[in-house]
Amino acid sequence: MILDRIVEDKRIRLKEHKQRISPEEMKKMALESTRKSISFYDALAKEGLSIIGEFKKASPSMGIINNKLELTDRIDQYNASVDAISVLTEEDHFNGGISYLKKVRELSGLPIIRKDFVIDEYQIYEAKVAGADAVLLIAAILNDDEMKRFYDLAYSLGLDVLLEVHDEEEMARALKLDAKIIGVNNRNLKDFSISLDTTRRLSEMLPEGKLFISESGVAADEDIEFLKGCRVNGLLIGRAFMESENPMEVAKRWKKIFEE
Ligand SMILES: O=P(O)(O)OC[C@@H](O)[C@@H](O)c1c[nH]c2ccccc12
């Protein structure tokens, strides 16, 4: 399965990163960082539809995403229309990198989430040092013990966690952990197919008081109409914004449709 492959490659990259900056040094830098996080939670909790705009240059399901807009232009548009920014930092399958996160940090006052395959504490310290306000944790690649350890570490550094699930079993694990922000990935990780109905199904398990984000495959006005009925607080949008000449206009239109 592709996910196993991505995690294997991640382990190799992690070794390289640790050779450049040792785990002790990275931890020290994170703990000494005086930068105050911008609340990812608050940005998503406000009334109406919240949107997380993603900076992503490629993905295993779509290959290279062909866009002419520079990072700067895209982030300018995000600054004017979305509530938070997601930056892919995975190198081998999404053409990302931690350097993009640092660049986006310089260009934006919005909360930023590090989007990667987190399998080690090191990556959470690294996110903090690079200027992130939140990290993604993917239930499908973590056991309960790791999930809790990474979750607690992130919060102890002042970072929020978006806990990603994609089926009932993972949702039950996220609820057991009492995660504050839960994201449903509409993409089936085995065959890449998209079904927004995953968001609807899993929303039925949600207790009051959680922030609920629908991730992946949201691309058309009809999708927004459908998700209106699914108790979502926010959406995570990658491809549709990366391919668009004017993501700002799309984000504004979708917020309007959701609120009508
Ligand atoms: O480009 P899309 O279909 O709008 O999807 C965005 C985001 O949900 C997707 O990039 C994503 C969701 N979970 C992930 C985990 C790792 C890498 C990427 C992702």
From TrEMBL:
Record field: catalytic activity = 1-(2-carboxyphenylamino)-1-deoxy-D-ribulose 5-phosphate + H(+) = (1S,2R)-1-C-(indol-3-yl)glycerol 3-phosphate + CO2 + H2O
Q: What would be an example GO MF term here?
A: phosphoribosylanthranilate isomerase activity
Keyword tags = Amino-acid biosynthesis, Aromatic amino acid biosynthesis, Decarboxylase, Lyase, Tryptophan biosynthesis
Q: Where are the transmembrane segments?
A: none
Classification via PROSITE patterns:
IGPS
> Which Pfam family, any one of them, does this sequence belong to?
IGPS
Asked whether the keyword Lyase is assigned, the reply is yes
Q: So which domain of life are we looking at?
A: Bacteria
The UniProt entry's GO biological process terms, in alphabetical order, are:
L-tryptophan biosynthetic process
The record, for NCBIfam families, names: PRK00278.2-4
User: What family classification does the UniProt entry report for this protein?
Assistant: Belongs to the TrpC family.
Identification of the protein by name? Indole-3-glycerol phosphate synthase
Q: Which organism is it from?
A: Anaerobium acetethylicum
- Taxonomic lineage: Bacteria, Bacillati, Bacillota, Clostridia, Lachnospirales
